[in-house]
Amino acid sequence: MATLTEGLTVEGWSEHTYARLDNIQSGTTPLPPNTTAWDILEKDFLELFIDYAECERGCDELKRLSVAGDYVDKYIATFEVLACHANMKLDDPVNL
Question: What is the pTM of this model?
Fold first, then answer.
């Protein structure tokens, strides 16, 4: 069965994650206060598979972004998404 994420990195991560979740379920590894197993799974995934070029790509795409025709709403929505990727504050007067 093919998945969207495959390869040795994913296999190693999934084996490590299953073992960690088994330890949490059996009680040998306690959960930190106010967290769930899902929180740990998400944190581990994001740390391993973070897209380090997302910010730069967002900035580059913002430089090329322009309004086409009467599609102002699409422009605004695209700007908001790209600004988020570029770690820009939407309420900053420079960005408004």
Answer: 0.49
* Residue matched to tokens 């994420």: 5
Tens digits of residue pLDDT in 52-81: 788 888 889 888 988 878 888 888 898 888
SS (H, E, C) the chain: CCCCCCCHHHHHHHHHHHHHHHHHHHCCCCCCCCCCHHHHHHHHHHHHCCCCCHHHHHHHHHHHCCCCCCCHHHHHHHHHHHHHHCCCCCCCCCCC
Rounded to the nearest 5°, which phi and psi values hold at 4?
-70, -30
- Name the one residue in this structure whose structure tokens are 């306690």: 30
The dihedral region occupied by 56, where left means phi > 0, alpha psi between -120 and 50, and beta the remainder, is alpha
